[in-house]
């Protein structure tokens, strides 16, 4: 058979293909996703409902923390009032029995604390030490009453927050249901290390943030919010180090705001529908985000034709694209609050 002059080229082609399999030369089959599927209206409704739900939940948690502290303050206040009342009555009895006070001090022996205090206020010659003790008692009673009123208001606020959460949960469910979303199951745990929690305000809420940090995954000068960058860094620190793309331009969704990242389940780009080890990688990563949603400030997670939302759990999600990028079968999408 005659030799062909293209034999060296053919050899190199075969060798390149072998190397691609053996050493993992980048073989991305799909470009970076350019949308997350679903309609603009649906995504906007969903985003607003989930954000409002999270805000109400944060307010509820803060209110519950205040309730715990108020209950402790009230318990201590009651003990202080009882102790000071006993001390004031001891002073009153001593001064009365010693003949130091006028007949008006009969009020001081009353078992009614209010009457005791009012009586002592009328007596001008108690002395500085006794007067200070009376003032302490009056202040303690005033603080106790104020704490009790604040506790009642706090509990009423919690009812309002719970109602808001239920309202926004319903809005999110309707937005998904309008596009065929039904409750389903999905990954919720992972053995990967827990992340360092995102920075929060003193009351437990998340601070407002803009797209102010350089996106290390972007080649075109994209930006991320500090919280999204933190989530990306914590994801990588926990061992999820395959290909990722975060910022991209656009007029809607979280990516143009620097609040979302797409984590491919393959090392060098976005490939076809995941299976086997790649599918397990995506399951574990999605479960890690669900498990650590509060710590990272997760808005929602999309993976393998499903979306996870706080207060909803996993729901089927139609990307309306019919290919791995829009169906999220080749990457885990993370949106951050």
From TrEMBL:
Q: Which residues form the ARB-07466-like C-terminal domain?
A: 221-328
Q: Which residues form a coiled coil?
A: 39-87
Enumerate the UniProt keywords alphabetically: Coiled coil, Signal
Q: Which InterPro entries match?
A: ARB_07466-like_C (IPR058593)
Give one Pfam hit by family name.
VldE
Signal peptide interval: 1-31
Write the protein's name.
ARB-07466-like C-terminal domain-containing protein
**Organism name:** Actinorhabdospora filicis
């Amino acid at each position: 058979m005659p030799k062909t002059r293209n034999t060296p080229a053919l050899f190199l082609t075969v060798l390149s293909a072998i190397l691609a399999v053996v050493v993992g030369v980048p073989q991305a089959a799909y470009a970076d996703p350019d949308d997350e599927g679903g309609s603009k209206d649906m995504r906007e409704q969903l985003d607003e409902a989930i954000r409002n739900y999270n805000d109400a939940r944060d307010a509820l948690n803060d209110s519950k923390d205040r309730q715990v502290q108020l209950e402790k303050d009230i318990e201590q206040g009651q003990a202080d009032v009882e102790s000071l009342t006993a001390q004031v009555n001891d002073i009153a009895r001593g001064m009365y029995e010693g003949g130091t006070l006028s007949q008006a001090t009969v009020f001081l022996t009353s078992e009614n604390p209010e009457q005791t205090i009012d009586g002592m206020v009328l007596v001008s010659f108690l002395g500085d030490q006794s007067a200070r003790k009376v003032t302490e008692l009056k202040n303690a009673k005033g603080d106790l009453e104020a704490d009790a009123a604040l506790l009642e208001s706090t509990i009423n606020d919690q009812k309002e927050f719970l109602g808001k959460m239920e309202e926004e949960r319903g809005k999110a469910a309707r937005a998904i249901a309008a596009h065929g979303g039904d409750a389903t199951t999905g990954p919720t745990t992972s053995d990967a290390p827990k992340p360092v929690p995102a920075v929060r305000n003193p009351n437990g809420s998340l601070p407002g943030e803009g797209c102010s940090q350089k996106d290390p995954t972007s080649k075109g000068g994209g930006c991320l919010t500090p919280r999204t960058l933190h989530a990306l860094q914590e994801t990588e620190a926990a061992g999820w180090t395959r290909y990722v793309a975060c910022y991209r331009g656009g007029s809607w969704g979280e990516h143009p705001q620097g609040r979302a990242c797409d984590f491919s389940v393959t090392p060098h780009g976005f490939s076809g529908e995941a299976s086997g080890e790649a599918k397990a990688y995506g399951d574990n990563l999605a479960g890690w985000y669900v498990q650590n949603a509060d710590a990272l400030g997760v808005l929602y997670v999309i993976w393998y034709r499903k979306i996870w939302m706080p207060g909803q759990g996993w729901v089927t999600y139609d990307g309306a694209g019919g290919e791995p990028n829009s169906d999220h079968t080749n990457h885990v999408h993370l949106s951050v609050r």
